[in-house]
Amino acid sequence: MKLPIVAYGDPVLRKKTEEIEEDYPDLKGLIDNMFETMYGARGVGLAAPQVGLPIRLFVVDASPFAEDDEDEPGDPSLKDFKKVFINPIILEETGDKWAFSEGCLSIPDITEEVMRPENVLINYLDENFEEHEIELSGLAARIVQHEYDHIEGKLFVDKLSPLKKTMLKSKLDAIAKGNVRVSYKMKFPQQKKGR
User: Fold this and answer.
1) CATH number of the domain encompassing residue 83
2) Tally of domains within the chain
3) 96 — phi, psi (to 5°)?
4) 134: closest CA among 47, 75, 60?
5) What is the mean pLDDT of each successive set of 10 residues along the chain, which is 195 residues long?
6) Residue 116 forms beta bridges with which residues?
7) Which residue of the set 67, 118, 127, 147 is catalytic?
8) Is residue 192 part of a domain?
9) Annotation says 147 is catalytic
């Protein structure tokens, strides 16, 4: 089932999330719905806060970045990079910071260059609550860093310069008010009465 994606401006996107236990209600169903929602919106990652849940869970599938493009072949290592991250903890971020144009399903129609370290070491539980520790680099690291920010109550626009944020303010305000067209279901913050 496709879930509505929470739009910029909703307080749930700014909450530090809670860890979950193995007996979290219908966890498998939630994970399946999150993947379906992400695919329906043509995303490569989706965090629980983006569907209104302040829990430490996100899903990723980087295979769209592995598909061959006519001009530029994709990264074949991303073809099978489909994972569920439960209660993740970033242990280390290393390497040079590099720029990449990021977008977010909760902030439609805005993409901006964001600087992030090229490598990440992360500890997490998978959908079977088995523990893993993996080191990722390049786009795989970036996707995980972006989704990890969500469960820490941060958004990619927080990493932009004050000038860039000022330039985007009216667009962000429009999204918060629901003045944006998207091809997927969204849930917008409640508008204040009298406006």
Assistant:
1) 3.90.45.10
2) 1
3) -70, 145
4) 60
5) 97 96 97 98 97 98 73 66 97 97 97 97 98 95 97 98 96 95 91 46
6) 98
7) 147
8) no
9) yes
